[in-house]
Amino acid sequence: MMFNEAAKGETAQPTGRLEVVVRDEVLKRAVTLMQHYLEVPLTIARVADKLDMSKRLIERRFRTELSTSPQAVYTQIHLDHARHLLLRTNKSISVIALECGFCDGSHLNRVFRANYLRTPQEFRSQGADLTAAV
Questions:
Q1: Which member of 4, 78, 128, 130 has the greatest number of CB atoms within 10 A?
Q2: CB atoms < 10 A from the CB of 128, how many?
């Protein structure tokens, strides 16, 4: 995915590749906003406000283009960033959770396990072998 603009210095820069392929320009902007607000996530209503659109219209466009909700995409962006940090840093699970917008390590643990059938610690300890499988 190509980014149309760089983030300001105080915002998180998108990391790694985005697993979601988006053709719709409005959705590209929405996904870019989501990536820039990882630590303190925006509500979907706030994303819509920043794009001068209604929340309902954003939700419909996500359903039409990606067959999923904006919140599911946002969760995937958080998890992708967590996976990136788990493999490339020695930060604790708690620190990674906060940097990725989860309220604590337990929350990251639950969401990560639900999506990848293993904990963040198991993912990290098995390292690069898992990146091909996930």
A1: 78
A2: 7
